[in-house]
Amino acid sequence: MFVVINGVVDFVVIFTRWIPFWVFRSSAHTPQYVNYLGRVLPPVIFGMLVVYCYKDIDFLSPSYGTPEILSGICVVVIQMLFKNMACSILLGTGLYILLIN
């Protein structure tokens, strides 16, 4: 039974990954709305992630949210300097872990 469920889930994931390539072939013109969504959605998603990450900060605790705020500033500064998302996320996470321990 596990093999069947795993096979169905694998097929659905692969099928949903292939749909955009079938619908928007290279010879067809991509609609302007899809181009607009591709340009606008990534910053919106990152904004939602920032709100999600900072929503549970307790400013009345003894640390006053200092580790979260400092690591967020670290991520922004490293991203502006190096333009490398993996580097900024890893270093920001490392700083956060250092500050909470």
UniProtKB/TrEMBL annotation:
Domain of life the protein comes from: Bacteria
Segments spanning the bilayer are 6-24, 36-57, 69-99
Q: Which Pfam families match?
A: AzlD
* InterPro entries membership: Brnchd-chn_aa_trnsp_AzlD
Keywords, alphabetical = Membrane, Transmembrane, Transmembrane helix
- The name this protein carries in UniProt is Branched-chain amino acid ABC transporter
Identify the species of origin. Bacteroides intestinalis
